[in-house]
Write a structure and sequence with these properties.
The complex is a heterodimer.
Chain A: H1 12-51, H2 57-61, H3 75-105, H4 109-123, H5 126-144, H6 152-176, H7 180-188, H8 193-204, H9 206-221, H10 225-228, E1 239-242, E2 245-248, H11 257-265, H12 270-299
Antiparallel strand pairs in A: 1-2
Helix pairs in contact in A: 1-12, 3-6, 3-9, 3-11, 4-6, 5-6, 6-9, 7-8, 9-12, 11-12
Chain B: H1 2-10, H2 18-28, E1 35-46, E2 49-60, E3 64-68, H3 75-81, E4 92-100, E5 103-104, H4 112-118, E6 119-122, H5 133-143, H6 149-162, H7 166-169, H8 182-194, E7 200-204, H9 212-225, E8 230-234, H10 238-244, E9 247-252, E10 255-261, H11 262-267, H12 272-278
Parallel strand pairs in B: 3-8, 3-9, 6-7, 7-8
Antiparallel strand pairs in B: 1-2, 1-4, 4-5, 9-10
Helix pairs in contact in B: 5-6, 5-8, 6-8, 8-9
The chains are: A mainly alpha, B alpha/beta.
Chain lengths: ~300, ~280
Protein backbone atom coordinates (compact mmCIF):
# COMPACT_ATOMS: atom_id res chain seq x y z
CA UNK A 1 0.00 0.00 0.00
CA UNK A 2 2.36 2.66 1.24
CA UNK A 3 5.99 3.01 0.24
CA UNK A 4 7.19 2.95 3.78
CA UNK A 5 9.90 0.60 4.94
CA UNK A 6 8.36 0.27 8.37
CA UNK A 7 5.13 -1.30 7.07
CA UNK A 8 5.15 -5.05 7.21
CA UNK A 9 5.25 -6.62 3.80
CA UNK A 10 2.74 -9.43 3.43
CA UNK A 11 4.58 -12.69 3.20
CA UNK A 12 3.94 -14.93 0.32
CA UNK A 13 2.96 -17.76 2.67
CA UNK A 14 0.33 -15.49 4.22
CA UNK A 15 -1.24 -14.88 0.84
CA UNK A 16 -1.22 -18.58 0.10
CA UNK A 17 -2.85 -19.33 3.44
CA UNK A 18 -5.58 -16.82 2.81
CA UNK A 19 -6.15 -18.25 -0.62
CA UNK A 20 -6.50 -21.74 0.81
CA UNK A 21 -8.86 -20.58 3.55
CA UNK A 22 -10.93 -18.83 0.93
CA UNK A 23 -11.08 -21.96 -1.19
CA UNK A 24 -12.04 -24.14 1.79
CA UNK A 25 -14.80 -21.87 3.01
CA UNK A 26 -16.32 -21.45 -0.44
CA UNK A 27 -16.26 -25.23 -0.87
CA UNK A 28 -17.98 -25.68 2.49
CA UNK A 29 -20.69 -23.22 1.49
CA UNK A 30 -21.23 -25.11 -1.73
CA UNK A 31 -21.34 -28.47 0.04
CA UNK A 32 -23.91 -27.15 2.51
CA UNK A 33 -26.21 -26.08 -0.28
CA UNK A 34 -25.67 -29.37 -2.11
CA UNK A 35 -26.64 -31.21 1.07
CA UNK A 36 -29.87 -29.25 1.34
CA UNK A 37 -30.77 -29.94 -2.26
CA UNK A 38 -29.83 -33.61 -1.85
CA UNK A 39 -32.28 -34.00 1.02
CA UNK A 40 -35.03 -32.53 -1.13
CA UNK A 41 -34.00 -34.84 -3.95
CA UNK A 42 -34.13 -37.89 -1.68
CA UNK A 43 -37.55 -36.94 -0.34
CA UNK A 44 -38.90 -36.51 -3.83
CA UNK A 45 -37.27 -39.76 -4.94
CA UNK A 46 -38.85 -41.76 -2.13
CA UNK A 47 -42.23 -40.17 -2.59
CA UNK A 48 -42.29 -40.78 -6.28
CA UNK A 49 -40.92 -44.31 -6.15
CA UNK A 50 -43.43 -45.30 -3.48
CA UNK A 51 -46.45 -43.31 -4.49
CA UNK A 52 -46.30 -42.64 -8.17
CA UNK A 53 -47.64 -46.06 -9.14
CA UNK A 54 -50.86 -45.41 -7.19
CA UNK A 55 -51.55 -42.14 -8.95
CA UNK A 56 -54.06 -42.51 -11.73
CA UNK A 57 -57.19 -40.84 -12.94
CA UNK A 58 -59.28 -42.58 -10.28
CA UNK A 59 -57.09 -41.11 -7.59
CA UNK A 60 -58.32 -37.66 -8.55
CA UNK A 61 -61.91 -38.54 -9.34
CA UNK A 62 -63.00 -41.26 -6.91
CA UNK A 63 -63.85 -41.36 -3.25
CA UNK A 64 -62.17 -43.98 -1.03
CA UNK A 65 -63.39 -47.50 -1.74
CA UNK A 66 -62.81 -49.87 1.12
CA UNK A 67 -63.95 -52.95 -0.78
CA UNK A 68 -61.40 -52.49 -3.51
CA UNK A 69 -58.88 -49.82 -2.48
CA UNK A 70 -57.33 -49.81 -5.95
CA UNK A 71 -60.62 -48.65 -7.41
CA UNK A 72 -60.85 -45.77 -4.95
CA UNK A 73 -59.23 -42.36 -4.81
CA UNK A 74 -58.75 -39.28 -2.75
CA UNK A 75 -60.79 -36.77 -4.68
CA UNK A 76 -62.53 -35.55 -1.52
CA UNK A 77 -59.18 -34.76 0.13
CA UNK A 78 -57.92 -32.82 -2.87
CA UNK A 79 -61.10 -30.77 -3.17
CA UNK A 80 -61.11 -30.36 0.59
CA UNK A 81 -57.60 -28.94 0.64
CA UNK A 82 -58.49 -26.49 -2.12
CA UNK A 83 -61.64 -25.39 -0.27
CA UNK A 84 -59.67 -24.94 2.95
CA UNK A 85 -56.99 -22.88 1.15
CA UNK A 86 -59.75 -20.70 -0.28
CA UNK A 87 -61.39 -20.20 3.11
CA UNK A 88 -58.06 -19.47 4.77
CA UNK A 89 -57.31 -16.88 2.06
CA UNK A 90 -60.63 -15.14 2.65
CA UNK A 91 -59.58 -14.61 6.27
CA UNK A 92 -55.81 -14.35 5.91
CA UNK A 93 -55.38 -12.16 2.83
CA UNK A 94 -57.35 -9.04 3.79
CA UNK A 95 -56.27 -9.12 7.42
CA UNK A 96 -52.66 -9.89 6.52
CA UNK A 97 -52.31 -7.28 3.79
CA UNK A 98 -54.18 -4.50 5.61
CA UNK A 99 -52.27 -5.32 8.79
CA UNK A 100 -48.98 -5.21 6.90
CA UNK A 101 -49.88 -1.80 5.50
CA UNK A 102 -50.76 -0.62 8.99
CA UNK A 103 -47.42 -1.77 10.36
CA UNK A 104 -45.62 0.02 7.59
CA UNK A 105 -47.54 3.27 7.90
CA UNK A 106 -48.21 3.53 11.60
CA UNK A 107 -45.64 4.50 14.14
CA UNK A 108 -45.77 4.68 17.87
CA UNK A 109 -46.29 2.36 20.79
CA UNK A 110 -49.44 0.67 19.57
CA UNK A 111 -47.88 -0.15 16.19
CA UNK A 112 -44.79 -1.69 17.75
CA UNK A 113 -46.97 -3.66 20.13
CA UNK A 114 -48.91 -4.97 17.14
CA UNK A 115 -45.65 -5.90 15.45
CA UNK A 116 -44.46 -7.75 18.53
CA UNK A 117 -47.70 -9.70 18.92
CA UNK A 118 -47.66 -10.60 15.25
CA UNK A 119 -44.26 -12.16 15.74
CA UNK A 120 -45.58 -14.03 18.76
CA UNK A 121 -48.54 -15.26 16.72
CA UNK A 122 -46.12 -16.42 14.06
CA UNK A 123 -44.29 -18.49 16.65
CA UNK A 124 -47.36 -20.21 18.09
CA UNK A 125 -47.23 -23.94 17.23
CA UNK A 126 -49.89 -24.89 14.74
CA UNK A 127 -51.37 -27.50 17.05
CA UNK A 128 -52.07 -24.80 19.61
CA UNK A 129 -54.00 -22.87 17.00
CA UNK A 130 -55.94 -26.04 16.28
CA UNK A 131 -56.81 -26.43 19.95
CA UNK A 132 -57.74 -22.76 20.16
CA UNK A 133 -60.18 -23.01 17.27
CA UNK A 134 -61.54 -26.20 18.76
CA UNK A 135 -62.14 -24.48 22.07
CA UNK A 136 -63.71 -21.28 20.75
CA UNK A 137 -65.61 -22.64 17.79
CA UNK A 138 -65.94 -26.39 17.42
CA UNK A 139 -66.72 -27.31 21.04
CA UNK A 140 -69.31 -24.56 21.68
CA UNK A 141 -71.16 -25.39 18.48
CA UNK A 142 -71.04 -29.10 19.29
CA UNK A 143 -72.56 -28.30 22.66
CA UNK A 144 -75.43 -26.38 21.10
CA UNK A 145 -76.06 -28.87 18.29
CA UNK A 146 -74.65 -32.27 19.19
CA UNK A 147 -73.11 -34.01 16.21
CA UNK A 148 -71.99 -30.81 14.51
CA UNK A 149 -69.07 -28.49 15.12
CA UNK A 150 -66.29 -30.01 13.06
CA UNK A 151 -66.50 -28.15 9.79
CA UNK A 152 -64.69 -26.72 6.81
CA UNK A 153 -65.27 -23.31 8.35
CA UNK A 154 -63.38 -24.22 11.48
CA UNK A 155 -60.45 -25.61 9.48
CA UNK A 156 -60.32 -22.58 7.20
CA UNK A 157 -60.43 -20.35 10.26
CA UNK A 158 -57.47 -22.14 11.85
CA UNK A 159 -55.42 -22.04 8.65
CA UNK A 160 -56.40 -18.39 8.07
CA UNK A 161 -55.08 -17.45 11.49
CA UNK A 162 -51.80 -19.08 10.56
CA UNK A 163 -51.59 -17.09 7.35
CA UNK A 164 -52.09 -13.68 8.95
CA UNK A 165 -48.68 -13.11 10.56
CA UNK A 166 -46.75 -14.47 7.59
CA UNK A 167 -48.57 -12.28 5.10
CA UNK A 168 -48.42 -9.26 7.39
CA UNK A 169 -44.69 -9.54 7.73
CA UNK A 170 -43.89 -10.21 4.09
CA UNK A 171 -46.24 -7.45 2.97
CA UNK A 172 -44.60 -4.95 5.29
CA UNK A 173 -41.09 -5.97 4.25
CA UNK A 174 -41.91 -5.81 0.56
CA UNK A 175 -43.70 -2.46 0.78
CA UNK A 176 -40.72 -1.06 2.65
CA UNK A 177 -38.65 -1.67 -0.48
CA UNK A 178 -40.76 0.71 -2.56
CA UNK A 179 -38.69 3.90 -2.77
CA UNK A 180 -39.93 6.72 -0.58
CA UNK A 181 -39.61 9.06 -3.56
CA UNK A 182 -42.51 7.21 -5.18
CA UNK A 183 -44.78 8.04 -2.27
CA UNK A 184 -43.58 11.61 -2.15
CA UNK A 185 -44.46 11.99 -5.80
CA UNK A 186 -47.98 10.77 -5.19
CA UNK A 187 -48.54 12.72 -1.98
CA UNK A 188 -47.06 15.77 -3.67
CA UNK A 189 -49.81 15.59 -6.28
CA UNK A 190 -52.44 15.81 -3.58
CA UNK A 191 -53.16 12.11 -3.17
CA UNK A 192 -54.21 10.81 0.23
CA UNK A 193 -52.06 8.25 2.00
CA UNK A 194 -54.50 5.46 1.24
CA UNK A 195 -54.71 6.45 -2.41
CA UNK A 196 -50.92 6.51 -2.56
CA UNK A 197 -50.75 3.09 -1.00
CA UNK A 198 -53.44 1.62 -3.23
CA UNK A 199 -52.46 3.15 -6.56
CA UNK A 200 -48.69 3.48 -6.33
CA UNK A 201 -47.05 1.55 -3.51
CA UNK A 202 -49.02 -1.71 -3.66
CA UNK A 203 -48.86 -2.02 -7.47
CA UNK A 204 -45.11 -1.38 -7.37
CA UNK A 205 -44.71 -4.21 -4.91
CA UNK A 206 -47.29 -6.48 -6.50
CA UNK A 207 -44.86 -9.27 -7.35
CA UNK A 208 -43.44 -9.42 -3.86
CA UNK A 209 -46.83 -9.34 -2.18
CA UNK A 210 -48.06 -12.18 -4.39
CA UNK A 211 -44.93 -14.16 -3.57
CA UNK A 212 -45.65 -13.72 0.12
CA UNK A 213 -49.21 -14.93 -0.37
CA UNK A 214 -48.08 -17.98 -2.36
CA UNK A 215 -45.50 -18.94 0.22
CA UNK A 216 -48.03 -18.54 3.02
CA UNK A 217 -50.45 -20.77 1.10
CA UNK A 218 -47.72 -23.32 0.44
CA UNK A 219 -46.96 -23.38 4.12
CA UNK A 220 -50.50 -23.94 5.32
CA UNK A 221 -51.33 -26.41 2.55
CA UNK A 222 -49.25 -29.02 4.32
CA UNK A 223 -50.41 -28.28 7.86
CA UNK A 224 -51.99 -31.24 9.62
CA UNK A 225 -52.08 -30.31 13.29
CA UNK A 226 -54.62 -27.46 13.14
CA UNK A 227 -56.93 -29.69 11.08
CA UNK A 228 -56.99 -32.58 13.54
CA UNK A 229 -59.26 -30.65 15.89
CA UNK A 230 -61.27 -28.75 13.38
CA UNK A 231 -62.31 -30.61 10.24
CA UNK A 232 -62.46 -34.20 11.55
CA UNK A 233 -61.90 -35.68 8.10
CA UNK A 234 -64.52 -37.07 5.80
CA UNK A 235 -64.61 -39.82 3.21
CA UNK A 236 -67.15 -37.88 1.23
CA UNK A 237 -67.18 -34.42 -0.23
CA UNK A 238 -70.37 -32.89 1.14
CA UNK A 239 -72.09 -30.46 -1.18
CA UNK A 240 -75.44 -28.81 -1.50
CA UNK A 241 -77.08 -26.80 -4.24
CA UNK A 242 -77.36 -23.05 -4.31
CA UNK A 243 -79.41 -21.80 -7.27
CA UNK A 244 -78.79 -25.15 -8.92
CA UNK A 245 -75.00 -24.95 -8.56
CA UNK A 246 -73.24 -27.55 -6.47
CA UNK A 247 -71.18 -25.88 -3.74
CA UNK A 248 -69.23 -27.43 -0.87
CA UNK A 249 -71.10 -27.47 2.43
CA UNK A 250 -68.86 -25.46 4.70
CA UNK A 251 -70.63 -26.45 7.88
CA UNK A 252 -69.94 -30.15 7.33
CA UNK A 253 -66.75 -32.01 8.20
CA UNK A 254 -64.35 -31.94 5.27
CA UNK A 255 -61.24 -33.83 4.26
CA UNK A 256 -57.77 -32.53 3.52
CA UNK A 257 -54.71 -34.12 1.92
CA UNK A 258 -52.36 -33.92 4.91
CA UNK A 259 -55.01 -35.30 7.25
CA UNK A 260 -55.84 -38.14 4.87
CA UNK A 261 -52.14 -38.92 4.47
CA UNK A 262 -51.80 -39.01 8.23
CA UNK A 263 -54.75 -41.39 8.57
CA UNK A 264 -53.65 -43.71 5.76
CA UNK A 265 -49.96 -43.73 6.64
CA UNK A 266 -50.73 -44.98 10.11
CA UNK A 267 -53.15 -47.64 8.84
CA UNK A 268 -52.28 -51.34 8.60
CA UNK A 269 -53.63 -51.89 5.12
CA UNK A 270 -50.62 -51.72 2.71
CA UNK A 271 -52.89 -50.43 -0.03
CA UNK A 272 -53.87 -47.47 2.15
CA UNK A 273 -50.19 -46.87 2.86
CA UNK A 274 -49.54 -46.73 -0.86
CA UNK A 275 -52.40 -44.25 -1.16
CA UNK A 276 -50.74 -42.16 1.53
CA UNK A 277 -47.54 -41.99 -0.52
CA UNK A 278 -49.53 -41.03 -3.57
CA UNK A 279 -51.32 -38.35 -1.58
CA UNK A 280 -47.97 -37.03 -0.44
CA UNK A 281 -46.81 -36.79 -4.05
CA UNK A 282 -49.92 -34.79 -4.94
CA UNK A 283 -49.50 -32.53 -1.91
CA UNK A 284 -45.84 -31.86 -2.67
CA UNK A 285 -46.74 -31.15 -6.28
CA UNK A 286 -49.39 -28.66 -5.15
CA UNK A 287 -46.89 -26.89 -2.91
CA UNK A 288 -44.29 -26.95 -5.68
CA UNK A 289 -46.77 -25.36 -8.07
CA UNK A 290 -47.50 -22.62 -5.53
CA UNK A 291 -43.78 -21.98 -5.04
CA UNK A 292 -43.14 -21.85 -8.77
CA UNK A 293 -46.07 -19.46 -9.15
CA UNK A 294 -44.46 -17.33 -6.45
CA UNK A 295 -41.19 -17.28 -8.37
CA UNK A 296 -42.99 -16.39 -11.56
CA UNK A 297 -44.76 -13.52 -9.81
CA UNK A 298 -41.50 -11.97 -8.62
CA UNK A 299 -39.83 -12.40 -11.94
CA UNK A 300 -42.61 -10.44 -13.64
CA UNK A 301 -41.30 -6.91 -13.84
CA UNK A 302 -43.15 -4.06 -12.19
CA UNK A 303 -44.48 -2.97 -15.51
CA UNK A 304 -44.20 -5.09 -18.60
CA UNK A 305 -42.87 -3.44 -21.71
CA UNK A 306 -45.56 -3.38 -24.31
CA UNK B 1 -16.40 25.33 8.59
CA UNK B 2 -14.25 26.90 11.31
CA UNK B 3 -13.36 29.59 8.88
CA UNK B 4 -17.00 30.44 8.29
CA UNK B 5 -17.77 30.33 11.96
CA UNK B 6 -15.09 32.87 12.70
CA UNK B 7 -16.45 35.13 9.97
CA UNK B 8 -19.79 34.80 11.59
CA UNK B 9 -18.47 36.09 14.86
CA UNK B 10 -16.98 39.11 13.16
CA UNK B 11 -20.29 40.18 11.70
CA UNK B 12 -23.02 39.48 14.21
CA UNK B 13 -25.33 42.28 13.06
CA UNK B 14 -25.66 40.63 9.67
CA UNK B 15 -27.79 37.95 11.29
CA UNK B 16 -30.80 40.09 11.79
CA UNK B 17 -30.22 43.14 9.70
CA UNK B 18 -30.81 42.66 6.01
CA UNK B 19 -33.34 39.90 5.78
CA UNK B 20 -36.72 41.46 6.38
CA UNK B 21 -35.79 44.68 4.69
CA UNK B 22 -34.36 42.89 1.74
CA UNK B 23 -37.47 40.82 1.17
CA UNK B 24 -39.63 43.87 1.41
CA UNK B 25 -37.30 45.57 -0.98
CA UNK B 26 -37.45 42.67 -3.38
CA UNK B 27 -41.14 43.04 -3.92
CA UNK B 28 -40.94 46.78 -3.71
CA UNK B 29 -38.63 46.70 -6.70
CA UNK B 30 -41.39 45.11 -8.69
CA UNK B 31 -44.58 46.83 -7.76
CA UNK B 32 -46.38 44.90 -10.49
CA UNK B 33 -45.65 41.58 -8.81
CA UNK B 34 -48.25 40.33 -6.38
CA UNK B 35 -46.85 38.45 -3.40
CA UNK B 36 -47.86 34.80 -3.64
CA UNK B 37 -46.26 33.17 -0.64
CA UNK B 38 -45.40 35.02 2.54
CA UNK B 39 -43.40 33.32 5.27
CA UNK B 40 -43.28 35.12 8.58
CA UNK B 41 -40.91 34.23 11.41
CA UNK B 42 -40.80 30.60 10.42
CA UNK B 43 -38.88 28.32 12.75
CA UNK B 44 -38.64 24.65 11.99
CA UNK B 45 -37.38 21.75 14.08
CA UNK B 46 -36.51 18.14 13.35
CA UNK B 47 -36.87 16.87 16.90
CA UNK B 48 -34.36 18.98 18.81
CA UNK B 49 -32.54 20.17 15.74
CA UNK B 50 -33.39 23.75 14.89
CA UNK B 51 -33.34 23.55 11.10
CA UNK B 52 -34.86 26.92 10.13
CA UNK B 53 -34.46 30.10 12.13
CA UNK B 54 -36.83 33.04 11.79
CA UNK B 55 -37.30 32.84 8.06
CA UNK B 56 -39.06 35.81 6.52
CA UNK B 57 -39.59 35.80 2.80
CA UNK B 58 -42.05 37.09 0.24
CA UNK B 59 -42.28 35.06 -2.95
CA UNK B 60 -43.72 37.12 -5.81
CA UNK B 61 -46.26 35.64 -8.18
CA UNK B 62 -45.32 34.43 -11.67
CA UNK B 63 -41.62 34.66 -11.11
CA UNK B 64 -38.84 32.22 -10.46
CA UNK B 65 -37.42 32.41 -6.97
CA UNK B 66 -34.19 30.53 -6.38
CA UNK B 67 -32.96 29.33 -3.01
CA UNK B 68 -29.23 28.71 -2.80
CA UNK B 69 -26.79 27.77 -0.10
CA UNK B 70 -24.41 25.02 0.96
CA UNK B 71 -25.64 21.51 1.83
CA UNK B 72 -27.57 21.31 5.07
CA UNK B 73 -28.38 25.02 5.12
CA UNK B 74 -32.12 24.44 5.25
CA UNK B 75 -33.11 25.49 1.75
CA UNK B 76 -34.74 22.16 0.90
CA UNK B 77 -36.38 22.03 4.30
CA UNK B 78 -37.85 25.44 3.70
CA UNK B 79 -39.07 24.45 0.25
CA UNK B 80 -40.78 21.43 1.72
CA UNK B 81 -42.58 23.51 4.31
CA UNK B 82 -44.35 25.27 1.46
CA UNK B 83 -46.46 22.24 0.54
CA UNK B 84 -46.23 20.65 3.98
CA UNK B 85 -44.14 17.76 2.69
CA UNK B 86 -42.32 17.80 6.02
CA UNK B 87 -45.52 16.64 7.68
CA UNK B 88 -44.49 13.18 6.54
CA UNK B 89 -41.46 13.20 8.79
CA UNK B 90 -41.98 12.32 12.43
CA UNK B 91 -41.06 14.75 15.15
CA UNK B 92 -41.04 17.90 13.06
CA UNK B 93 -42.46 21.16 14.34
CA UNK B 94 -43.06 24.53 12.73
CA UNK B 95 -43.76 27.89 14.30
CA UNK B 96 -44.50 31.18 12.58
CA UNK B 97 -46.80 31.42 9.62
CA UNK B 98 -46.72 30.70 5.93
CA UNK B 99 -49.52 32.09 3.81
CA UNK B 100 -50.47 31.29 0.27
CA UNK B 101 -52.63 33.97 -1.35
CA UNK B 102 -53.16 35.34 2.14
CA UNK B 103 -54.42 32.09 3.69
CA UNK B 104 -52.36 30.29 6.31
CA UNK B 105 -51.34 26.90 4.97
CA UNK B 106 -50.71 25.53 8.46
CA UNK B 107 -54.17 26.48 9.62
CA UNK B 108 -56.03 23.62 11.28
CA UNK B 109 -58.89 23.80 8.84
CA UNK B 110 -56.53 23.63 5.86
CA UNK B 111 -56.72 20.39 3.88
CA UNK B 112 -53.18 19.31 3.10
CA UNK B 113 -54.43 17.36 0.08
CA UNK B 114 -55.89 20.51 -1.45
CA UNK B 115 -52.76 22.47 -0.62
CA UNK B 116 -50.57 20.00 -2.46
CA UNK B 117 -52.85 20.18 -5.46
CA UNK B 118 -52.28 23.92 -5.48
CA UNK B 119 -48.55 23.70 -4.72
CA UNK B 120 -46.98 21.01 -6.90
CA UNK B 121 -43.52 19.62 -6.41
CA UNK B 122 -40.74 18.33 -8.65
CA UNK B 123 -38.13 16.27 -6.84
CA UNK B 124 -34.39 15.90 -7.10
CA UNK B 125 -34.48 12.49 -8.70
CA UNK B 126 -37.04 11.89 -11.43
CA UNK B 127 -39.65 9.69 -9.78
CA UNK B 128 -42.17 8.54 -12.37
CA UNK B 129 -44.67 5.92 -11.21
CA UNK B 130 -44.30 2.38 -12.51
CA UNK B 131 -47.04 3.00 -15.05
CA UNK B 132 -47.33 4.12 -18.62
CA UNK B 133 -46.49 7.69 -19.58
CA UNK B 134 -50.19 8.35 -20.09
CA UNK B 135 -51.17 6.97 -16.69
CA UNK B 136 -48.39 8.90 -14.99
CA UNK B 137 -49.85 12.16 -16.21
CA UNK B 138 -53.43 11.12 -15.55
CA UNK B 139 -52.67 10.05 -12.01
CA UNK B 140 -53.17 13.53 -10.61
CA UNK B 141 -56.34 14.42 -12.54
CA UNK B 142 -57.79 10.99 -11.75
CA UNK B 143 -57.27 11.31 -8.00
CA UNK B 144 -59.00 14.65 -8.23
CA UNK B 145 -61.95 13.02 -9.92
CA UNK B 146 -61.52 13.45 -13.67
CA UNK B 147 -62.54 10.24 -15.45
CA UNK B 148 -63.59 11.45 -18.88
CA UNK B 149 -61.23 9.87 -21.38
CA UNK B 150 -61.42 12.71 -23.88
CA UNK B 151 -60.61 15.23 -21.19
CA UNK B 152 -57.68 13.12 -20.01
CA UNK B 153 -56.36 12.86 -23.57
CA UNK B 154 -56.42 16.62 -23.76
CA UNK B 155 -54.65 17.00 -20.43
CA UNK B 156 -51.93 14.59 -21.50
CA UNK B 157 -51.23 16.40 -24.73
CA UNK B 158 -51.41 19.87 -23.21
CA UNK B 159 -49.13 19.06 -20.28
CA UNK B 160 -46.62 17.12 -22.35
CA UNK B 161 -46.46 20.04 -24.76
CA UNK B 162 -46.11 22.31 -21.77
CA UNK B 163 -43.20 20.26 -20.53
CA UNK B 164 -41.60 20.20 -24.01
CA UNK B 165 -41.87 16.43 -24.15
CA UNK B 166 -44.79 15.82 -26.49
CA UNK B 167 -42.85 15.38 -29.70
CA UNK B 168 -40.53 12.85 -28.12
CA UNK B 169 -43.19 10.63 -26.56
CA UNK B 170 -46.39 11.12 -28.53
CA UNK B 171 -45.99 7.70 -30.18
CA UNK B 172 -45.28 5.82 -26.98
CA UNK B 173 -47.78 7.24 -24.52
CA UNK B 174 -48.80 3.76 -23.47
CA UNK B 175 -45.31 2.52 -22.82
CA UNK B 176 -43.62 2.40 -19.46
CA UNK B 177 -42.34 5.71 -18.16
CA UNK B 178 -39.19 3.90 -17.08
CA UNK B 179 -38.20 3.53 -20.73
CA UNK B 180 -37.52 7.27 -20.90
CA UNK B 181 -34.14 8.87 -20.28
CA UNK B 182 -33.46 10.68 -17.01
CA UNK B 183 -34.08 14.08 -18.52
CA UNK B 184 -37.27 12.94 -20.21
CA UNK B 185 -38.44 11.39 -16.95
CA UNK B 186 -37.90 14.67 -15.15
CA UNK B 187 -39.87 16.56 -17.80
CA UNK B 188 -42.57 13.90 -17.44
CA UNK B 189 -42.62 14.61 -13.71
CA UNK B 190 -43.05 18.30 -14.49
CA UNK B 191 -45.88 17.48 -16.89
CA UNK B 192 -47.43 15.33 -14.19
CA UNK B 193 -47.39 18.29 -11.83
CA UNK B 194 -48.83 20.59 -14.48
CA UNK B 195 -51.70 18.16 -14.95
CA UNK B 196 -53.15 18.96 -11.51
CA UNK B 197 -53.11 22.65 -12.46
CA UNK B 198 -51.17 24.06 -9.53
CA UNK B 199 -50.47 27.75 -8.93
CA UNK B 200 -47.04 27.17 -7.50
CA UNK B 201 -44.39 24.68 -8.56
CA UNK B 202 -41.66 23.80 -6.10
CA UNK B 203 -38.51 22.31 -7.58
CA UNK B 204 -36.00 20.62 -5.33
CA UNK B 205 -32.72 20.54 -7.27
CA UNK B 206 -34.57 19.31 -10.34
CA UNK B 207 -31.48 19.11 -12.51
CA UNK B 208 -28.92 17.67 -10.15
CA UNK B 209 -29.36 14.17 -11.55
CA UNK B 210 -29.37 15.30 -15.18
CA UNK B 211 -26.78 15.89 -17.87
CA UNK B 212 -26.11 19.45 -19.14
CA UNK B 213 -28.32 19.03 -22.17
CA UNK B 214 -31.35 17.95 -20.18
CA UNK B 215 -30.60 20.67 -17.66
CA UNK B 216 -30.71 23.22 -20.42
CA UNK B 217 -34.12 21.97 -21.56
CA UNK B 218 -35.54 22.13 -18.07
CA UNK B 219 -34.21 25.65 -17.58
CA UNK B 220 -35.83 26.68 -20.84
CA UNK B 221 -39.01 25.10 -19.63
CA UNK B 222 -38.91 27.10 -16.41
CA UNK B 223 -38.62 30.25 -18.47
CA UNK B 224 -41.70 29.21 -20.47
CA UNK B 225 -43.70 28.28 -17.39
CA UNK B 226 -42.87 31.40 -15.47
CA UNK B 227 -45.68 33.47 -16.93
CA UNK B 228 -48.34 31.11 -15.64
CA UNK B 229 -46.85 29.65 -12.50
CA UNK B 230 -44.98 30.82 -9.48
CA UNK B 231 -41.82 28.76 -9.32
CA UNK B 232 -39.57 28.23 -6.31
CA UNK B 233 -36.41 26.31 -7.08
CA UNK B 234 -33.72 25.00 -4.77
CA UNK B 235 -30.43 24.61 -6.55
CA UNK B 236 -26.83 23.84 -5.76
CA UNK B 237 -25.81 25.32 -9.03
CA UNK B 238 -25.28 29.06 -8.69
CA UNK B 239 -25.05 29.63 -12.43
CA UNK B 240 -28.44 28.00 -12.71
CA UNK B 241 -29.89 30.31 -10.07
CA UNK B 242 -28.43 33.27 -11.93
CA UNK B 243 -29.82 32.05 -15.26
CA UNK B 244 -33.36 31.13 -14.32
CA UNK B 245 -34.44 33.22 -11.37
CA UNK B 246 -35.62 36.76 -10.74
CA UNK B 247 -35.13 36.62 -6.97
CA UNK B 248 -32.58 34.69 -5.03
CA UNK B 249 -32.43 33.78 -1.37
CA UNK B 250 -29.21 32.69 0.28
CA UNK B 251 -29.57 30.21 3.16
CA UNK B 252 -26.84 29.47 5.64
CA UNK B 253 -27.09 27.33 8.79
CA UNK B 254 -30.86 27.55 8.85
CA UNK B 255 -31.02 31.30 8.31
CA UNK B 256 -32.07 33.24 5.28
CA UNK B 257 -29.03 35.45 5.13
CA UNK B 258 -30.07 37.53 2.19
CA UNK B 259 -32.99 37.74 -0.18
CA UNK B 260 -33.06 40.11 -3.09
CA UNK B 261 -33.20 40.46 -6.84
CA UNK B 262 -31.03 37.82 -8.42
CA UNK B 263 -28.84 40.42 -10.10
CA UNK B 264 -28.24 42.16 -6.78
CA UNK B 265 -27.37 38.91 -5.01
CA UNK B 266 -24.85 37.97 -7.64
CA UNK B 267 -23.32 41.37 -8.29
CA UNK B 268 -23.72 43.42 -5.18
CA UNK B 269 -24.74 41.35 -2.16
CA UNK B 270 -24.94 43.18 1.13
CA UNK B 271 -24.08 40.18 3.28
CA UNK B 272 -20.42 39.18 3.44
CA UNK B 273 -21.10 35.50 3.54
CA UNK B 274 -23.47 35.72 0.60
CA UNK B 275 -20.70 37.37 -1.33
CA UNK B 276 -18.21 34.72 -0.21
CA UNK B 277 -20.62 32.00 -1.33
CA UNK B 278 -21.66 33.40 -4.70
CA UNK B 279 -18.08 34.22 -5.56
CA UNK B 280 -17.15 30.61 -4.85
CA UNK B 281 -15.03 31.14 -1.76
CA UNK B 282 -16.88 28.38 0.10
CA UNK B 283 -19.77 25.98 -0.28
Amino acid sequence: MVNNTTTVKPHRSNVTRRKIANRIMLTLCMLASVAAVTVLGLVLFFLISKGFSSINVKFFTQLPNHVDEKAGGMSQSIYGTLVLLGLASVIGLPLGILGGIYQLEAKGKFASAVRFFTDVLNGIPSIVIGIFVYAVWVAPIAKLHPGTGYSAFAGGFALGIMMIPTIMRTTEEILKLVPFSMREASLGLGATRWRTMWSVVLPSARGGVITGIMLALARIAGETAPLLFTILGNEFFVTHKVYGIKVPTLTAPIDALPLRIYNYATAVDPEQQRMAWAGAVVLITLILVLSIAARAATRGKVLEEK
Amino acid sequence: MTNIASQDKQTPPALSRPVVNASAAATANRPDAKSKIVAKDVDFYYGDFHALKKINIVVPEHQVTALIGPSGCGKSTFLRTLNRMNDLIDGTRLTGSITLDGADIYDRSREVVGLRKQVGMVFQKPNPFPMTIFDNICYGPRIHGIRNRKLLDEVVERTLRGAALWDEVKDKLHKSAFALSGGQQQRLCIARVLAVEPDVILMDEPCSALDPNSTFRIEQLMEDLRGHYTIVIVTHNMQQAARVSQQTGFFLRGELREFDDTSTIFTNPSDEETEAYVSGRFG
